[in-house]
Amino acid sequence: MRYTRQIQLFGADNQQKLLESKVLVVGVGGLGCPLLQLLSSVGVGTLGLVDFDKVEAHNLHRQFLFDEACVGMLKTDAAVARLRARNTQTVLHAYPYALTADNVFSTIADYDVVVDGTDNFSVRYLLSDACAIARKPLVYGALYHYEGQVSVFNVEKDGYTTSYRDLFPVAPQPNEVPTCNEAGILPTISSMIAHFQANEVVKLLIGDLDNALIHTLLLFNTQNYQLTKIKYNMTDKKAPSTAEEVQQFNYPAFCHQPVGDELTTVEALDAFLTQEKAVLVDVREEDEQPKIDRYTALSLPLSVLPTQWEQLKAYDHICFVCVAGVRSMKALNFAKEVLADKDLKSFKQGFSPLVNV
Predict the structure, then answer these.
(1) Where's the Rhodanese domain (predicted)?
(2) N or C terminus of the chain: which is more exposed, having fewer CB within 10 Å?
């Protein structure tokens, strides 16, 4: 029998609870891929997968549901195919779109537990607010260099409920917490934190709330194996309390993401660069690969921009690009101070779509 070993551990009744449960995983990346594998393996009956992105070559080292043949495919399509091959008993639902205020409530509605595998603060706060309003348990996970964090939100314990905003009431500045694309990550770290998250999901589904990370933030350092637990309480936080307020809340602005300063599609970048005296500026370091070949880009690393920016005076329309939009936004903010009369943009998607594979 497929689940014999874990039934020996926690009993047939708990296995039945898993088979009857529904879990939504938001983000099919470094956290989401191991999460989905584990949740399918333990017998969660229904899994939902939310991700708008396509598989790229740099995903393969940590996103274990994909192989080289998946490059260019929608992540949700590739993941569903792999998960179905592993366990035909799992019901799988793919949502190949970005979460927004318009679709978040309908997306989470049918699920017992939601898991945050995102790498975007605007989406994280949106998902947290929606789950809090809908009273959906949310299992949080985050990565930074050699460390990871895990916690459980929106579950009542000791007479009160806590959420992501109780832990992080104010969004960090863009330069304070770089994404994995910007800071780098080892697959051992993302996989380990995903295992912790999956373990918390199982606890919630079988009702083991006493041992779940409710009102508790787990911090784990994979270099020295230091594990820290921090207790936190409900706060007098300011947050949307209805679906209507979520619709009206400006999440990009709250997360310090300037609206209007970013080009979000290759088509928009194409149009921008067709203008007279337009230039694409690659602010990655000289040794970072691969090089952009869709356009002729000017290499001007962020590290030397403060001393070499004057060469940009020759252009009227300037768009900065890096790996994932963090350094390019720093370059844009610097350029606003010295080139205030120029048309300045940052390309949000980073260099990947600008390289011919």
Answers:
(1) 274-356
(2) N
